[in-house]
Amino acid sequence: MDMANQTRIKEVAEKFGTDKVVVILGGAEAESAGLTAETVINGDPTYAGPLTNIALKLPVYHIFEIKDLIDPEVYDAQISMMEMVLDVDAIKDEMESIRQQFS
Amino acid sequence: MNFPVIKAAGFVLVHAPNIMMEHGTTITMERKNNPDSDYLQKTAQSIRSFEEAVNYAPNQVFIGNLTPEDLQELPRPWHQNPVNKGPQGKYGDIIPENEFYAVMKIADSFQLVELEEEFAARVKTILVSKNIFNDKQLDLLDKSSERDYIEKLVYSGKADGLYENNQLVGCVREAHESDPNLSAHVVFENLVAKASGILALKNLLNKNNLDAAQIDYIIETSEEAIGDMNQRGGGNLAKAIGEIADCSNATGVDMRAFCAGPAHGILTAAALVQSGIFKNVVVMAGGSSAKLGMNSRDHVNKDMPVLEDMVGGYAVLISENDGKNPVIRTDIVGKHKISSGSSPQAVIQAIVVDPLEKNQLKLTDVDVYAPELQNAEITTPAGAGDVPLANYKMIGAMAVKRGEISREELPQFVTQHGVTGFAPTQGHIPSGVPLLGYIRDNILAEKMQRAMIIGKGSLFLGRMTDLFDGISFIIESNSGVLQDSLKGNNEEEFKQEIRNMLADALQELARSMGGGRPSDE
User: Fold this and answer.
1) Mean pLDDT across chain A, nearest whole number?
2) In whole angstroms, what is the distance from residue B334 CA to residue B339 CA?
3) Are B261 and B285 in contact (CB under 8 A)?
4) What is the pTM of this model?
5) DSSP assignment, residue B335?
6) Is B389 on the interface with A (CB under 8 A)?
7) How many structural domains comprise chain A?
């Protein structure tokens, strides 16, 4: 997760409180989505960014995991194409695994 | 309507491992923050030789000695399966770093590049044999400096070094003692873009037997800003490059749109030619020193050579319709509007689907798409995946959504309408344009009828907008039928003039016969 996004997540969490923030990811690949999820739950695993050693424990989901919560027309217009392109199951599995491991 | 044509394309690759070590931002940031890191040591040990860079198959596709289809068939990883090809290609050349330093010296109008005496004499001999530059330009290499002088400049921080096999052989001096936009670092970056741009333009002209004096206008589309502290991006590399390439009748402009710059530039050139403002417009760019070694951390972690050691350049000539060369369909243009939205689907809809739909074309009517064509062997180890493949899957998925193909036919669509990525990760360089030579050749050989060039740009990197950008256009085979639009306009004007004259004569006749009312007089 890049430095700028870590900074923004940290600021938002501090401003609104970790109980009022949910992180929604749009990453294209399971491993990178997992690393991002780990960063906002347990801190930056690369020890390079502003979230190093800061476990915000934020709830985090990939956009594919919350399909049922989204207006079907909006989902069809914005996301459905990527469902055909990306490995949705691998991303969902990785997200679940990271949440179980660190939450 | 006479569409403008893609008359020729030229390319260049410069093998630049020392520039990478001194100016690649990933490496220089590490050196600043962590000078003794294992990564830096491993990177220095993972540099390719010039021969390895020449025999690297994706580079051979870039200069036209191999096709993307050939690349697809070759065993991977490509860096472990060299091909036996030379540095000269149909579209361009691969040149070594020491020759490039000499071109930087020739490109330097302000005596900011210093080359050491023995080195300058050696590279001059090589450049003389290549017959690229005239005697006056080559004589600039005689103005060399003593090693002590260069060392003092570099150690004082007033110059950035030029290295060959870890030996200091020259430097680029700062152009102002306190202006950050004319620091040695910035001047160095700009001279790399200028010198590689000159080589791309020279290849365009020389390999296609074109007369430099026929070029009317140059649009430069790299991502560097040329200026001083009062106008950081004032310009203009286009004219500076044209000057060294003997384009004596040209002026030009720098156009910037991140990686979408080349596609914006080509469309602008097409408009200038189709409107009749200019007959021959070159769109071109040199490469980037900052982006060298961008993913080197991931490459050395996976025990690979550092593959991002190539500075790229391209040049394309857009000319009046000659009835032969492929045309740019200026009536089939896709654009990512401010209101388009930036989800990948919204981007593909705006850039690819909308222009085709508007012109009653299907996604399957385009023989080949040319989106960002990065070499996946460079991007995949860094977690960015295969960028062209992802683009082809997205376009194919839209064809599925539109009912043009079935879901099961998606992999086939990707193979039939896509190519294997081969371009160095130089930002604007991979953005559609590396395929222009291949597309032109295939259309001329009637193996292909229609191609789409897709430029995409990450505008948010400059922090002035969080918008994405993209623009596309269609290249098509030339029907050979030219409309004489000028003659048509003249005829219409002539007819109107006759009508007016007749009307005046009839009014005059009516008056002379007394038919007009007296009050009219």
Assistant:
1) 95
2) 14
3) yes
4) 0.90
5) E
6) no
7) 1
CB contact under 8 A, A78 and B343: yes
- Residue-wise pLDDT for B8-31, tens only, equals 999 999 999 999 999 999 999 999
Contacts of B379 in chain A (CB under 8 A): none
The model's pLDDT over B263-305, given as tens digits with 9 standing for 90+, comes to 999 999 999 999 999 999 999 999 999 999 999 999 999 999 9
Q: How many CA atoms lie within 13 A of B34 on its CB side?
A: 9
**Total residues belonging to chain B:** 521
Instruction: Go through chain A and tell me how many residues it has.
Output: 103
Mutation target to probe the B interface, by most B beta carbons within 10 A, among A5, A81, A91 is A81
Domain holding A23, by residue range, is: 3-102
A31 inside 8 A of chain B by CB? yes
Angle B241-B246-B248 (CA atoms, 0-180°, nearest 5)? Answer: 100
B361 touches chain A (CB under 8 A): no
Q: Which two tokens stand for residue B255?
A: 């156009």
Confidence of residue B517 (pLDDT cuts 50, 70, 90): very low
Question: How far A79 CA sits from the closest chain B CA (Å)?
Answer: 7
- Helix B97-107 to helix B184-207 angle (10° resolution) is 100
Q: Which residues of A63-78 are buried (b: 16+ CB within 10 A; e: fewer)?
A: bbbeeeeeeeeebeeb
Confidence band (pLDDT; 50, 70, 90) for B495? confident
Residues from chain A that touch B410, judged by Cβ atoms under 8 A, are 84
Q: B341 and A84 in contact by Cβ < 8 A?
A: no
